[in-house]
């Protein structure tokens, strides 16, 4: 029976994230810290603009596969203004979220057996996208004690004749690291010296805290032909369900990436493209509000973790709305077992670190894109859990 399934799907392991979500649903009143999904709703002015577009009969058909011209023009303005990318409209492809952009980019770049260098831990979907394309993820551990910094030297050493690409997200899911400009310049040098493509996932570009800055590697002029940068409306405007994002690449890449985009998607949902247009052209206060909210929930989560120092060690996230504490108790060495126990006994849903690659083991991912009450509820329960039956100290 199984032999009918392709090898490319059979090699993909069950997702620990989805398994935890399924288990969490079986538990009443769970404190939920496991999804990287904003709990805020899409801002009203975006919803209203789409209602108007529907009433005006604009949303019933396909758009061109590249996306609506009006939207791509606004994306160009945004990329020039905020990312310092010297973009033109012919370099933009509107996609079904960042995910379909990333998947199409990987399909356009990777042949079977090609290697893709990635930091580890990293967003598990990137690993799967490379595997689905029959490529080989080469996972290079981040330097945890240095705030989960890129190990540039190790990445350089990992380049082989089979290496085709480097793929990463910054700000990072799951660690919350914002890779600094200087490191990304060094990464760009590795790509240029070895003729590699860099595929970026910049989903959390606007959620950067303190004095950190988001840097787009495509803004380095020499990298024009070597970067495919993927973006999304999902996080910035709390538009998870609309499924709309976009990518930027050299215009020679766009027709090649479209060869993957069209059979998977034809075009991004048109109603969602109108939502994206309203997001870019409307007031931007919501983005600042979300950023402030996440900075404050990050601070609260760090404070609550500080009170549990004998059980967790953590690197303060400089971006995204995720953090990746190390579990200091013995049982944390099996992060799935630990997170399942926390769910069953404390009713707190977290994500086992192993879901993000082998160097994620012994950690758990926590999301702080939730209301403060949810964080306090979760941590009150975690404290109680450690006070009670738990007796294995670090
Ligand atoms: C790093 C990263 N990229 C992409 C996505 C999904 O983006 P989209 O909804 O635009 O497909 C997520 C969602 O969790 C993410 O964490």
Write the layout of secondary structure elements.
Elements (H helix, E strand, L loop, with lengths): L6 H4 L5 H10 L5 E2 L11 H12 L13 H14 L9 E4 L1 H13 L5 E6 L3 H9 L3 E6 L10 H7 L4 E7 L11 H14 L2 E5 L25 E6 L12 E4 L4 H13 L4 H12 L3 H22 L5 E2 L8 E2 L2 E2 L7 H12 L1 E2 L1 E2 L11 E4 L4 H16 L7
Parallel strand pairs: 1-12, 3-4, 3-5, 5-6, 6-7
Antiparallel strand pairs: 2-8, 7-8, 9-11, 10-14, 13-14
Helix pairs in contact: 2-12, 3-10, 4-10, 5-6, 5-9, 11-13
The site of pyridoxal-5'-phosphate has 13 residues, from helix 5.
| Assembly state (oligomeric) | single chain
Number of helices, where a helix is a run of at least 4 consecutive DSSP H or I residues: 13
Give the C-alpha Rg. Answer: 21 Å
Q: Name the overall outline.
A: globular
Task: List bound small molecules.
Answer: pyridoxal-5'-phosphate
Q: Low-confidence parts, pLDDT < 50 over ≥5 residues?
A: none
Main sheet: strand order: 2-8-7-6-5-3-4
Structural class: alpha/beta
Distance between the termini: 46 Å
User: Helicity range of the residues?
Assistant: 40-55%
- Share in β-strands: 5-15%
Order of helices and strands: HHEHHEHEHEHEHEEEHHHEEEHEEEH
Mean pLDDT: 95
How is the main sheet built? Answer: 7 strands, mixed
**What is the number of E strands?**
14
